[in-house]
Every structure is written in structure tokens, then in C-alpha cells.
Here is the input.
Amino acid sequence: MRTEVGKVEQRQGLAAGGKSGETIAKSMLEKFPNGVKVTSTAANRVNATVDRGLLYKVAEFLKNEMDFEHVTSVSGVDWYPENRMQAVFHITSYANRVTAEIIVDLPRDSPEVDSVTPLWGGANWNERETYDMFGIIFKGHPRLERILTAPGSDYFPYRKDFAGGRRV
Amino acid sequence: MDLRLAPNAIAMTSKEFIAWSTDVMAELMRATGVKKAIDKISAPIWSWALRNANYPLHFGVACCALEMAAASAPRFDAERLGMIYRSSPRQTDVLLVNGWVTAKLRPDLRRLYEQMAEPRWVVAMGECAISGGPWYDSYNTVQGVDTFIPVDVYIPGCPPRPEAMIDGFMKLHKKIHKEMRGTFLED
Here is the structure.
């Protein structure tokens, strides 16, 4: 016998018994009143900007209390004219069917941020690639080495001040 | 003449004897025309065997590898021409480079080439392997395989069709046939 298929909205959005994006944003703000800024929410999204000192604590909170199981992607943004960079973490929860986009602002002269690889192993190669392309240093990463470019390269190709052209 | 030394003068060491007898055999074969007869039989046989069993290394780098796969599929069936892909460089004769070579890949590709047993040939397939292709001024793409290993046959195209790839291997067959590697006794 076929089971009743739920409504389309229900299947795309909130899982049964899960927390919605709004709920997660609210509990995030309660736990971290300073340093976390929620920019927008939806049933399956939380977009937030986090201070870089707080990132690891927020990630731990998301993993242990909000059932976020894996990191979908880690990437970077180079805001060259404003002299700053951003590390962007997309962290996803299957239980809640929510994706959290955590953005960390970094100064361009010392782009260092805590690694989330100790919490989610899937962030390992994503963080290495972000280091490779943007030069963002993930503190606490088990093996922060070049992954796509040749070992010993001295450039970060995705930075806006990178001069292209033939090198090999 | 001091005949007491005569037996020592005739005696040879084993190495000297082998060198002497080899010379005698070679000279004898040259003089009687046996060498020409042997080469006339052995060289085409060896060349035929080499041509019809040139195993390329199964090393797909980029999108040309899909054409390589299509050439092995039933429609083109490159296996009927002796192209059987092997996964170990020790078992292969042809290094088929099909795609761009990054600065990171270059030392590994060079090592694969050196691991292959002689005689070995290199085929550069597609624009990227020939000259860097669209990445002609890239910071990370090597401008052609022939900058670091010798290339025998170039197959142009972006990517070349399977027919073009098979045609390139036919060119390689002709080249192998011209080399006549079955000629054992040097003149």
C-alpha cells in the first residue's frame, strides 16, 4: 500500500520534527548575542555573518545542538578595493533540511580563520582548496597544503591582485 | 723460437673465446648471406607484432579521454587494431596523453613515461596536449607535452573524433614499420 506523500512545501522545507531556519536563527542569536548577525532566513536557509573569533564556537553549536551533519562547501571572496576577504561556509543539516551560510570577514593582510575540519571531516579538501586559491589560512587544519596547484607555488590565483599570464 | 711458451700463447680466457667466436659467427653470416636472410624474415615479423599490439596506457586526463573511450566502444572498436588499454605503465608501449598537463601533473607524467619499458612511443592527442590549447597563457598549464617528453605522433582536434585518433595510431603503425626493430645484427 502506498503511503501518503506529503505536500510539496513540506517535502522541500521543514522535515517532520526538525527545526526551521527561523528557529535555528533565533536560538543562534540567543546563544551568541554578540558577534553573530543574521542577515536573512527562510524555511530552509540561515544566512549569518559571524566574528572570526566566534566561528568555531558557532560551528560547534550548530553541530552538537542543531544537528548540522556536514559541510557542503567552503569558499572565499576577495573584496580587493575594500581590503578585506571573506570565508564562506555552507553547512547543511539533513535532519532539519536547512542550509546555513556562515560568512566570516577577514582582514586582507592576515586572512586567518579557525578550521572546521575537526568537526566535519568533509571540510578538509574544501579548506585546502580555499587556501590554495585565496591564501586564507585555516588554523587547526590537519594538513594545510596546496591541493590543485603544484607544491611550492608562491601565488594565490583567485586573488584580485593576481597577475595572470604564462608561468610554466 | 721458444716453443716452451706455445701452449700459453694459444690458450684464451672464456671472455676472449666468446668475443672471438662471436666475431667468427658474425663474419661467417655476413660472408655467406645468412644475415640478410635472417633479417629479411625477422624484421617484418617483429615489426608486425609490435604494430598490432601497441597497448596504450589507460590514463585519461581530460575531455579527449571520452573520445578515447568512444574509440574503444563497439562503433569504432579500436581493439581490432591492437589498441588494448592497460592500467600499468610496465605493460604498455604507447603513452597516450589526452588533455592539458598542469604543472602539478608534469613530474608524474614524466615518471610514468620513464616507467614504461622500451620500445615506447608517445602520442599527443588534442590541442591541449600539443600546445596548451585554450590555456596558451595559463599560469598552471604546460604548453604542450613535447616540452618535457619526446612525442611521436600529434593528433590535432578539440577534441579529435575517434576516427582521427585511430588515424593517428595508423600513422604510428607506419612509423613503427619504418623503424624495423627486428634487425638484430648490426652492419
Remarks:
- Chain B has two domains: 3-51, 64-179.
